[in-house]
Specification:
The chain has 122 residues and is an alpha+beta fold. It contains two helices and four strands; from the N terminus they run ββααββ. Strands 1-2-3-4 form a four-stranded antiparallel sheet, with helices on one face. It is elongated.
């Protein structure tokens, strides 16, 4: 089994409804995202999946979030755009987009800052 990681980032604003603290106000983050893919085997030249293929899919998914107010995104209409929910959104969208029978998404890590992160997996 192989574990492949690809990182990217996006910038967006959000506010946490019902939160008792400063994050209830509109603010922004430069989120860092790491996606982890599990692959069962390599192909005839020794690759599991091309990093470029994973990066293209990840960038397509996070482009929906980049430079937006996350509270206005349809996915977050009935949930807060917390790091937990953002990681879940990226995981599920990526899972639907990845077209590779030998590889599957393992986890998504979303970092709000250099010192804090949330990881979602199923």
């Amino acid at each position: 089994m192989y574990k492949l990681n690809v990182k990217s980032h996006f910038s967006a604003a959000h506010q946490l409804n019902g939160y008792n603290g400063p994050c209830k106000n509109m603010h922004g983050h430069n989120w860092k995202v790491r996606i982890c893919i599990l692959c069962e085997k390599t192909d005839e030249i020794g690759l599991t999946i091309d990093f470029k293929e994973v990066k293209i899919v990840l960038d397509r998914v996070i482009s929906e979030l980049d430079h937006t107010n996350l509270n206005e995104h349809e996915y977050f209409q009935d949930k807060n755009p917390t790091s937990e929910n953002i990681a879940c959104f990226i995981y599920k969208r990526f899972q639907n987009e990845l077209k590779n029978d030998c590889c599957q998404i393992h986890e998504v890590e979303v970092c709000e800052s250099d010192n804090t992160s949330m990881t979602y997996f199923e």
